[in-house]
Amino acid sequence: MSALPTAVRRGERSRSNSTITLAIVLVGVFAVAMSIAGTGIALPRIGLDLNASGASLQWAITAYNLALSAFTLVCGSLADLFGRRRTFVAATLLFTCGSLLTAAAQNILLLDAARALSGIGAGGVMACGGALLAAAFEDTARTRAFAAMGMAGGTGVVAGPFLAGWLVTQLGWRPSFLVFVLVGAVILAGSVFAPESRAAERPSVDRPGVITFVAGLGSLMYGLIQLPLGGWGGPAGLAAGAALLVMFVAVERRRTHPVLDLAMIRNARFMGWTLGTLFTSVGFVGTLVYLPIYFQGVNGVSARDAGLTMLMMTAPIMAVPMFGGWLVNRGVPARGLMTLALLLVAGGNAWLTVLAPGVGGLSLLGPLLTVGVGMGISFGITDAQAMNHVEPTRVGMAAGFLNTVRNSGEALVIAVFGTLLVALIQARVGSAELAGQIAAGDLSGPGQELHARQFTESWHVVLWCVAGICAAAAALVHTLIGRPPRRPATTRAEEPSASNATP
Length: 503
Prior knowledge:
The protein is an all-alpha fold and 503 residues long. It has 17 helices and no strands. Helix 1 (3-50) packs antiparallel against helix 6, helix 2 packs parallel to helix 4 and helix 9 packs parallel to helix 13 (334-351).
């Protein structure tokens, strides 16, 4: 019997396994994104059921986001050492168990702890999912796979609030978390068919690096979250976080096998793509979070109508990522597309200064659509292009670092955006308490029209700042991506993965 049929069967099996790998990663990314975007819908019912309110209730969201940001890099680096599929499975188990414990929690402290456990798992799913795709696909197939991953994440962000709202309304908040348990079971079943890959060496885990990074980033994120609330928690968290991250860099310089290879940060092309995804988030996330508050407070629309208006910005993320990947595979320079994405986000924010009391949806369609298209292009091309500039043995670390920068940057933007908005309003109204009230959408009482105008003026200043930052970032990213590579591309011989598979 000839060897040719055997080789053909192996190739078909490899392509089949890669397709299953893509499918489980897409399901995992969608679930993580939906859990980020949709949990807020369940908070009022959770509060009533568990007799919780205020900060303890808000930590159901905060704990998840903080843990996700702090552990993404760690999970990605561990994936390179212990196997990307194995670590992906472990992360999925944590996400699934956390969701199960959330659904079963009988008090708010247990629920917050369960959400933190889910967040650790979610960080692993994002980082290890990206590493699995980078190891399983090459060239144009890799671009398509990561474009699909971007589309899955965007769809989760867009559909999350709607699906979560339907589940909570129809079934209750506890069953809404049990859905993630079922999704986790599906992912675990499919993971059996995913090819395993890891770095050729398996050195000891960089425990000092892991501890200082998680503690440092966690403290920094905590400080950012607490800063708008006043008190000592914000400044103390920021100071401790900064000190620990400086210590982390010092530790990593002395480690033979660090959790973050600092040479990756010196890789101009990789950092160009990493900064690209960070700055597109700068122009997207703050508007996504705070603009619905403006619509409800100034224009008096319902939460549902405010959410529908935001679809003009979020809907493109469900389609544009695949289009961006398609353009790259048809020969359109990825560098030019990334620059265009940042310029679109910058231009959309500048255009959004048409914002005014009583503004209609038709006037907002252009600017919101422009920002959404720019963000969609970034989602579709960033990860694949960044992975192309990293050694195959470091794809887990690279995916973890990329997602850590993205997630931490989004949290930073949300905190700074809100703080800046309140500060600008306070400069106009002369009262911190009144400024916080207006920024939260409460314009009741005397002077409503004046406060609406002051709120709008503050928004315009923030939008021009964001537009300027994104425009400057476009020039920086364009320059970094155009730098010549530091070393020739390495081969992928040591990677036991399904090469040249087509998703």
